Amino acid sequence: MNHQTFMPSTETIFERIGENTMIVNMGPQHPSTHGVLRVITELDGETIVQCKCVIGYLHTGMEKEAEYQQYLKCVPMTDRMDYLNANGNNLAHALAVEQLLGCEIPKRAQYIRVILAELSRIASHLVWLGTHALDMGAMTPFFYTFQQRELILDIFEMVSGVRMMPSWIVPGGLRGDVPAEFEPRLREFLKSFDNEMDTLESLINENPIWKERTYDVGILSAADALSLGCSGPILRASGVNWDLRKDKPYSSYEDFNFSVPIGRTGDVYDRYLVRMVELRESAKIIEQAIDGLPEGDFCTADRKISPPPKPEIDFSMESLIHHFKLYTEGFRPPVGEAYAAVEGSKGELGFYIVSDGTNRPYRWHERPSSFMNLKSLEILAKGRMIADLIAIIGSIDIVLGEIDR
Amino acid sequence: MVAETTTLQELLGERLIKTVEKHAGTYFCVAPDDLLETLEVLRDKHDYKFFSECVGADYSTWTHERDLSGRFEVVYNLLSLSTGNRVFVKTSVSDGESIPSAIPVFQGAEYPEKEIGDMYGIIFTGNELKPGERFMLPDDWVGFPLRKEYPLGGEDVLFDLGTKGPAVEDKSIPHAGESFEGKTGTEEVSGR
Question: In chain B, fewer beta carbons within 10 Å around the N or the C end?
Fold first, then answer.
């Protein structure tokens, strides 16, 4: 098999290379690349002169596939993009389609969406923390974080039957209401979560090895972050006060009190701190949402968008027709373009959808947050040691499923 | 949005093709040659400093009214962190035409523009893919998958005697309806 045909050559990827430098290839199967990221580095000793990311190893053509699917059938694909923050992706997609449809979502559904999205954010940040610490040689946090994540995945399983890819947030509301044991289970999780966070912080915050590896490493300036399109914790760690949940509230985020952490220098340690505060803030939002969870419907009353309740089908001909039409034909949003963004765990997560008035999207595109954030790696790693590259990749928090789609 | 429109009208005059209000924000439609100027003035004068993304679309099978006439549209999505407003700068090109790359204005444009180049074959001057180089796709891939005439493809349906395969009309398109299984080995997939 000739490798040259499908893999970019390590020799020709840079426009020019120095005389005494060495090209070292990292990935795509390297454990600290968090998936299948390939980084080609030019090294002068142990210092990185330049590096370049090679992506696409997980490309599955979801945007093409979506053009052949009804809107409702696009939902499961969104989970599989950023599989660590599946509910956030579902939410962004649902908001974009609802923007096209112009439909209102009941308050209860909005609150449950917030709870699910924040749980996803916590789960995603916990995976990030565990793996990031593992990269830096700290084994212990990994067990603590995955233990907590397991509890969250159990809650998802209780709600939707699926642990990682719930697809529970659909255009028009939710697929169903949460079960009765949802609230006690959630409260149980929240009760212990703060203590768990204390444990994690006591393990890492003042750890001399951790500080040595992360202090003043990979500093990203605010101007660079904006120009690169970096968002989320990376942007905030660079000192920019911007959070879509706060500044452009969607799905009733304006009802909740929470603070947005801002970093000072924008190094790897700041990004770590910002995410640690976000974890606690997310727990606060969930607590407020479950306290104030209103009664009501879990989906819009428009039968053209959301299916009728199952028992109604038995005696109402109208409902049967609606049910049948919705699952065979789907709904037809009016002609137009929509872009809706949410604050995902990795940054601004948006969906750009063009509708031509049929039941399938004409163009369906995700604004992948880690795809835009990844570009900063090439700038941050320049002039640093190769060990810092691992720390920086970890701090950017990438998910290759979302980058390649 | 009024201030932005006035600025752009002063800057471009007749060359500002259209200003449209849509669900997500205001769309400014400009010619590819005016793109950089537009992005720069929005960034510097109106604080649209956050480059959200750019996205391409192929309108070759579109039957409704359109803002621009070229086959492909590229939409640049900018966000102002001070006001929270979003503007979209839209430009369009026909097959084989090129758009100047937005990298001089926003560094982050590199990846999404390369992706659009890879998926649609639009050329971004200053951000071109090298000959034989692909961004997302394997380097030996032929064709541009997100174009409307490119078939979805898919796996072979077994035991159908060739009647129920993936819906493919045009057999001249590379990879049309092929199963890729077992084709990465000795068999040559493309002309390379």
Answer: C
